[in-house]
Write a structure and sequence with these properties.
Distance between the termini of chain B: 38 Å
Largest sheet of chain B: 3 strands, antiparallel
Low-confidence stretches of chain B: none
Number of strands of chain A: 7
Low-confidence stretches of chain A: none
Mean pLDDT of chain B: 95
Number of helices of chain A: 13
Helix content of chain B: 40-55%
Largest sheet of chain A: 4 strands, antiparallel
Strand order of the largest sheet of chain A: 3-5-6-7
Shape of chain B: elongated
Distance between the termini of chain A: 37 Å
Strand content of chain B: 25-35%
Order of helices and strands of chain A: HHHEHHEEEHHHHEEEHHHH
Largest interface: A-B, 80 and 57 residues
Strand content of chain A: 15-25%
Mean pLDDT of chain A: 92
Structural class of chain A: alpha+beta
Oligomer: heterodimer
Number of domains of chain A: 3
Order of helices and strands of chain B: HHEEEHHE
Strand order of the largest sheet of chain B: 1-2-3
Shape of chain A: globular
Structural class of chain B: alpha+beta
Chain lengths: 360, 140
């Protein structure tokens, strides 16, 4: 580390913290309620949970408020809080097949079993800034409730479980068989990653990666600094039951539900044994964060390239740089005193100039 | 729709119901360990069949003892009271003599279950209303 320890300035630091808080609380605006953040800024809450690696909507809302909306800082606060909590145990293996779906689309097939469910999204509308103020939010809410829940129920409803789109391809023998790890999945929060990392460790690492970092790396591959131009076989958003085991009876039980997004992408095919098959990539994260899940799916596929040839296909490059808390921390540390370091740089520069000018 | 679990039903109770459920707990219920918040590592299986750790979930765990039986519950979130009530109901179901208390609790739990199912029904209904069948343009 190249920063140096300094002392003094305690009062100035205290005033700086108070100034930050004073600015965050606003001059004339009403205080932000946690329920407002959790419900009305839910996508930001979801992002913070995913990047913090902790599913805790109330605490993520608290972190967002404390961080004045900075998702890096909020994710850091959440992950730091996580470090203070005991790990009570591990869940049983939870399946997104059991997901209570609120949104599910496929861009690979027009007609999929279970149907295309657009769900809560603005994807299919014009993204224009709504400049007209919402005069009466309660009336608007009542209007929306009437639109969504008034009248007769939609015919057919939706199924409790949706078949996976990739299973349609798999049934025709069109999808690669991936050898999965038989042993317990690697836990990157307990053991240091060793490269090449097993796929389950890569998935865990990507699942708590920073959304922008994953998007940047995946986008580089999509645009041509790589080879993965995906088709989205399926994107689903919904609530996954958290299955636990009762320690006394051994019976499984559901502790609650966790909102998650899952994306499965298809990209390229190979012909290893004269039997060409599609390759898949999978992405999954806490909350509704579709960009992140899709990017993760692309990167999962990138990282399984037989001969890595670009940054997005390099495990160490991707996994060392995708964590927002580590990258933010490192960038932030440049704000700490580096006086001794810089004096040394200055000395060297002055000596170099002396030598250069003496020889001129 | 999946039947809600006991933990989910208690977690969904409104405040007056929760207060009443706490009042109904037997006085001699023991807590070998105070309810504690912590995290559970959530493991998932993805589309290729690989299991991996998605992340950790904040939960509250309670362990209770009553008439030589143990009760246990974990609820998602940081809520010692709901976790405690769920564990207590778990032990009341397991121990002799718990049925009378459970009978008093039943209307409260039933109401919470209905409310939870109603909310999930709304989610399903909203989703169903967005079901679409796209048509290809002629020539596509």
């Amino acid at each position: 580390m190249s920063y140096v320890a300094v002392q003094g300035g305690r009062e100035a630091i205290e005033r700086a913290c108070e100034s930050y808080e004073h600015r965050r609380l606003g001059r004339d605006s009403a205080p932000l309620g946690l329920d407002q953040i959790r419900e009305q800024l839910h996508l930001a809450v979801d992002r913070v949970m995913g990047e913090g690696g902790l599913y805790a909507p109330e605490h993520a809302a608290l972190a967002l408020r404390q961080a004045a909306g900075d998702t890096f800082e909020a994710a850091f606060l959440l992950r730091a809080h996580r470090a203070t909590l005991p790990r009570i145990g591990e869940s049983k293996v939870c399946s997104t097949g059991e997901m209570r779906v609120i949104r599910r689309i496929s861009s690979a097939f027009k007609d999929v079993p279970g149907g295309q469910i657009l769900g809560p999204t603005s994807d299919y509308s014009l993204r224009l800034l709504e400049l007209d103020p919402l005069d009466d939010p309660q009336a608007r809410k009542a209007y929306l409730r009437e639109r969504l829940f008034g009248g007769t129920e939609p015919a057919g409803g939706i199924p409790d479980e949706f078949p996976r789109v990739v299973d349609l391809l798999r049934a025709e023998g069109l999808v690669e068989d991936v050898s999965t790890e038989a042993s317990e999945p690697f836990d990157i929060t307990r053991r240091s990653m060793v490269y090449p990392a097993p796929r389950n460790a890569r998935l865990q690492s990507l699942a708590r990666g920073e959304t922008g970092a994953l998007l940047f790396l995946a986008y580089s591959s999509m645009r041509g600094y790589g080879h993965i131009h995906p088709t989205l076989a399926e994107l689903r958003v919904g609530y996954v039951p958290l299955w636990m085991e009762h320690p006394k009876t051994g019976e499984p039980f559901v502790a609650g539900e966790v909102l998650a997004t899952e994306a499965e992408v298809v990209s390229r095919f190979s012909d290893p044994n004269g039997d060409p098959k599609f390759h898949l990539g999978c992405g999954m994260c806490f909350g509704q964060n579709e960009i992140k899940a899709i990017s993760m799916g692309v990167l999962d596929r990138c990282l399984r390239s037989a001969s890595p040839s670009c940054p997005a296909e390099d495990q160490e490059f991707v996994l060392y740089h995708a964590d927002g808390i580590e990258s933010m921390g490192f960038s932030n540390h440049w704000k700490l005193p580096h006086y001794v370091d810089f004096l040394s740089d200055l000395d060297r520069l002055r000596k170099a100039r002396e030598v250069a000018h003496a020889g001129a | 729709m999946r039947e809600p679990s006991l933990c989910e039903i208690v977690a969904a109770c409104d405040e007056p119901s929760l207060t009443r459920l706490l009042e109904l707990l037997p006085d001699d219920i023991e807590l070998p360990r105070a309810p504690r918040d912590g995290v559970v590592l959530m493991t998932c299986r993805e589309g290729l069949g690989e299991t991996f750790h998605l992340g950790e979930v904040m939960v509250t765990e309670s362990l209770v003892r009553w008439r030589d039986a143990d009760g246990y519950a974990v609820v998602v979130g940081d809520d010692a009271r709901r976790s405690l009530v769920a564990a207590a109901i778990d032990v009341l179901r397991a121990a002799d003599g718990g049925q009378a208390i459970l009978a008093d609790m039943e209307p409260l739990l039933s109401r919470s279950r209905e409310a939870l199912l109603s909310r999930r029904g709304e989610d399903a209904r909203a989703a169903a209303s967005t079901k679409v069948e796209f048509d290809l343009l002629p020539g596509a």
